[in-house]
Structures are given as C-alpha cells and as structure tokens.
Amino acid sequence: MDPANKAKLMDGQPLARRVLAGAIAKVERLRAGSGAVPTLATVLVGDDPASAMYVRMKRKRCEEAGIKSLVLELPRDSTTEQLVGEVRKLAADPSVHGIIVQHPIPTPIDKRAAFETIPLSKDVDGVSSAALGRIILGMPAFGACTPVGIMRLLREYHVELDGVHAVVLGRSPILGRPMASLLINAHATVTLCHSRSRALPSIVRGADVLIAAVGKARFVQGGWVKVGAVVVDAGYNEGNVGDVDFDAVIEPASLITPVPGGVGPMTIATLIEHTVGAAALQLGVEV
Ligand SMILES: NC(=O)c1ccc[n+]([C@@H]2O[C@H](COP(=O)([O-])OP(=O)(O)OC[C@H]3O[C@@H](n4cnc5c(N)ncnc54)[C@H](OP(=O)(O)O)[C@@H]3O)[C@@H](O)[C@H]2O)c1
Question: 93-139: per-residue pLDDT in tens?
Fold first, then answer.
C-alpha cells in the first residue's frame, strides 16, 4: 500500500490489545477481591457457520482475558419458549455475569422476546430495550459492543464529532440505531439511512464522518465520499469484505478502517471489557 494511504488507516488491533490488557488487569483485581471468575454465557441457536466462527473467536478472547466462557447450543428448530427459558435460567444464575444471544437467530423465533429476557445488569451487548433506551438518553448502561467500540476508535484517532455531519448507513437495533445515538450524544448532526432512503449517494457525499453498517459487500463507492471524510466500515461480508469499496474510498478519505482489523477487534475487546464491568458491578468489587 502507498505510504500516504497507509497513514490513513484506523487500525483497531493495537487499541483492542490495549483494551484487552486493561480488562486482564481488572479480572485479576476482581479475582483477588472476590475470588470469583467473570463469566460470559453465549446462547447459539442453529448451525450458522459464521455465528459458530464468531462464538469460537469470542471464546478464545475470553480465555486470553481470564474470563470463563459458557456456550449453550440449541437446535435450529428450537421454539421461542425454549430459548427464553434457557436465557431465564442464565439470568437467575449468580455465577453468570454476562449473557449474549448470538444473532442471527433463526426465524420464526421471536428474538426480541429472548433479548428482553436478559436483565440489564447482564446485558453486555446492549440488546434489550432497557439498555438501548439508556444509551439513547446518555445514561449508564453497557451499549451494543460494535458502536461502543467504534466510538472508542474515533476517540483514539482524535476524530472531531462536535457539530460535524455524521451519516450512519443502517438502522439495526444492535448497530445503526445505537451508533446514531452515541454520535448525537457526542454532539454530531446525524443522518440515519436505511433501505428506503432516497438519493443515498448525495446524502453520503455530505458526510464528514460516515459509518457503514448495511451488510452489503463494497456498497459504498468511491464517488460517494467527500474529500477528507472519516470512513468507518462496520460491515463484515463473505470473503472478509466490508460494506465500503476500500480501494476506491481510501483516496478521498482522510481516515478509514480496514476490513478485517478495524471495527471487528474493537467489538470483541469491548465485549470483554463489558463482561468484566458487569461482573464487578454484580459482585460489588471496585476494579
Ligand atoms: N465488525 C463487527 O464486529 C460487526 C458486528 C455486528 C455486525 N457487523 C456487520 O455489520 C453489517 C450490518 O449488520 P447489522 O446486524 O446491523 O445488519 P442488519 O440487521 O441486516 O441491518 C442492515 C441495515 O442496513 C440497511 N440496508 C440494507 N440495504 C440497504 C440499502 N440498499 N441502502 C441503505 N440501507 C440498507 C437495512 O435497512 P432496513 O432497516 O430498511 O431494512 C438495515 O437497517 C453486517 O455486514 C454485519 O456483518 C459487524
């Protein structure tokens, strides 16, 4: 890569390593203070290979951080009642500090019912309406890990958010919506786009900061991005490809996240940090 372009990369890996190192130190203090091991439970429904890969990756990072990772696998044809029942058991188990219900969740399961069963104190990926509501209002809660990780990356690279125009592509409850809220709370002027948005390229051209979270490979094209824009690619599509046409967008962008190695490592590091934070709060130990 051209050295001038290399300087534009927002690399998530060194920051994620630092967040993990901080979490490891907190795990040690927590164990010393309470004798307890922070524990993350993940419920995986069905046999989606990408989900299985994410769960393996999270498990590996948990082990590295000294966090106990429990994975509960349910068959694809599980009912909403079965899933909710399992989440309820984890919610009541004092040795479990964080709960993740891995998405996508096969239809016709009511995923919202499962998410709402996770108590706020154990909702380490901010999927419940209680957590999202608190994030919107700027109140303390564990927000969805991907947008929280993105905010941290933007801070690391000293990206100005106050008063700038931020465009978020995608309105999912785990990514686009909390992302827009965090940006609003950081005083950006936010446009939130989705599949019904008209004249998307012209909206994107007005972005000082662009967050792409649509789930479509190389969706954002070079001609859509204004010179000097900061571009964050949250997309992760087959073949390790993001939602941004990286080779075309790196030219106009002033900063851009690579895929892989940008947002992904920050998501997992944030999950680890949230799990340790949840355990500390539940055990009443200051870390
Ligand atoms: N790096 C990470 O750690 C991480 C974590 C989570 C997700 N991801 C990735 O982020 C991406 C988004 O994930 P998600 O869970 O938010 O996906 P999602 O639930 O499928 O939501 C996609 C959003 O994109 C919008 N959209 C779809 N086509 C569009 C179009 N042509 N124009 C404008 N908007 C469009 C949809 O609009 P409607 O609402 O109108 O349907 C929806 O709001 C995926 O690539 C996923 O793999 C990465």
Answer: 999 999 999 999 999 999 999 999 999 999 999 999 999 999 999 99
Asked if residue 240 has its Cβ within 6 Å of ligand 1, the reply is no
Closest atom, ligand 1, to C-alpha of 237:
45
Q: Note the CATH architecture for domain 145-265.
A: 3-Layer(aba) Sandwich (3.40)
pLDDT tens, residue by residue, 256-287: 999 999 999 999 999 999 999 999 999 999 99
pTM for the predicted model, two decimal places: 0.98
Ligand 1 center to residue 122 CA distance, Å? 25
Ligand 1 binding pocket includes 231 (Cβ within 6 Å): no
Dist. CA 203–CA 151, nearest whole Å: 21
- Which residues participate in catalysis according to the annotation? 58, 102, 125
CB-CB contact of 70 with 40 (8 Å): yes
Per the CB < 8 A criterion, the answer to whether 116 and 128 are in contact is yes
What CATH number should be reported for the domain whose range is 35-118? 3.40.50.10860
